[in-house]
Amino acid sequence: MLYFFLSYARGDEDALVQKFYEDLSAEVRLIAGLSRDERVGFVDRTILLGERWPQRLVEALGSCRSFLALMTPRYFQSRVCGQEWQLFAERTARFESQRRVDTSLLKPLMWIPAQPGRIHPVAQPLQYTSDSLGDLYQRLGVRQLMRLQRHSDDYRTFLFELASQIVTSVEANPLPEQHRPVDLQAVDSAFHPEEATNGVDRGTAAGGDATDPMRVHFVVAASNRDEMRGIRQHVTVYGDDALQWAPYRPPMPEPLIDYAREIAADHSYQSTVVEVDRLPHSAELAARYNQILVLIVDAWMTRLPQRRQALVEHASAALGNRSAATAVLIPSSRDDPETREHWQTLSRACREIFNEFTSDDELYRSNIITHRAFEDELPEVLEVARNRVFSRGSVHRPPDPSTDPSPPRLDGPWARDDDQPGTGGPA
């Protein structure tokens, strides 16, 4: 049983959050009387090699018994965190309505001290301070309790009290699992109600304005494990299809495109994903509807003659449309010795294919050597592309529903209400 789901904004000191998750899990096991190998919590860093994070995340949100939100300023800016909150809040609301109880299963925690006005209105009604958790927690937050050695005893006390609250509330309120399938990308964010679409996909609507979430079309130019065995010795970064390519494995085991979509969602972008054979179609949509096109390229594709030729043809046809805001990102992991050894020739081959884009160092990013660098560069690229959409894009204004679509009839300034067609006024 998952006693808790730990929700946090990726990039807010991931390693420290992971330690907190492990420490809390150990305390929950102890209090619940479980073995040391029993899995009692979920945080997205626990996803196993080769698993696709969105499905695992949704399954955990549907089965966890409580929800811990590590509150930071970035947490309430993250659309993904808002979606996680929304899914769990809906589960508990149904349960509390049926049982007529207040479960306290959604528990906000101060990662750093809460500043006036920085707590989102959706979290303000919830209790995020508690005398039982200690004065130092209320004054310093979880982060400082962990970081400062002189507070180690207070941190252990805080962990024990928090774990006790989790176990007590979970066992007193057996929240049913949610088995219906959920598309996380379609869930509204509890922190961004203004982005609710009421069933209309504004990411593809021609009439969206600057307040709408912009859509990013991610195109993955990579291959599968079997095909790459013909040109590479080390193929552990590949999967059964191009979308499972994980170039930063082992430090980051998840597929790169899942990571890219999460980063985009954290910055309030909607996104779609296709393989490279759909590049022309995605480029057409991006140009037509003032959207962003991001091509993520495995440089080893240039060593596969047929794949290289297809990439050349698609890139020439699709990326030649300068009305689309287009970016090219080429990862090159420093933990991949084989790629580092051949990088000079691989990079040169990529520059030959994307020749007209290589001079644009804002939207052509090559040799991205770590997933942290990718996490830093993708938002920069999206911001540049977004600004170009606003400065160069076409204006699409659909008519108001009350507008008469029939062509106007010009009768002249002398027309009277009783004039008949063809009987104009005086000459």
From TrEMBL:
Residue ranges of the region described as Disordered: 390-427
Domain TIR: 1-130
Compositionally biased residues, Pro residues: 400-410
SUPFAM superfamilies linked to this entry: Toll/Interleukin receptor TIR domain
Top-level division of the source organism's lineage: Bacteria
Any Pfam family hit: TIR_2
NCBIfam families linked: FxsC_Cterm (TIGR04276), FxsC_Nterm (NF040588)
Full protein name: TIR domain-containing protein
Lineage: Bacteria, Bacillati, Actinomycetota, Actinomycetes, Micromonosporales
